[in-house]
Amino acid sequence: MHLRTTTYFLATTALLFSLNGCIPSGGRCFPYMEKAGYFCYKGHNFGRNVSEEYKKGVIDGCHTGEGHFRRNYSLSSSSADYKTGWDSGRAYCPFIVPEEAKPGQRTQYQQAIDEKKQGAQ
Questions:
Q1: pTM summary value
Q2: Which backbone phi and psi does 41 adopt, to 5 degrees?
Q3: Number of Cβ atoms within 10 Å of the Cβ of 21
Q4: What CA–CA distance (Å, rounded) separates 33 from 111?
């Protein structure tokens, strides 16, 4: 009985990964993934076969997440894809640290936070 349950679980898991494309959105992006239809922005995977509105939303959300507010309000109110993309970009991009950042060096995002804190005081 235990062997049968384990086999069923493994077969179901393998099926789910094959249907999902094996690569969930929200992870790191590698060069071969863009060729396979994934939308990669700033080294991050934002999903496969996404609309142009979603891509615009991700790009604007990333700029916002990095401290440079940008949002197309007309698209945000008329396109669920743009709004979802903006939310995704805003959520993921603050956590992307540029490869050129050196230990002890403040990133642009960290500097923007520092400036906001100084302005609030």
A1: 0.57
A2: -140, 125
A3: 15
A4: 32
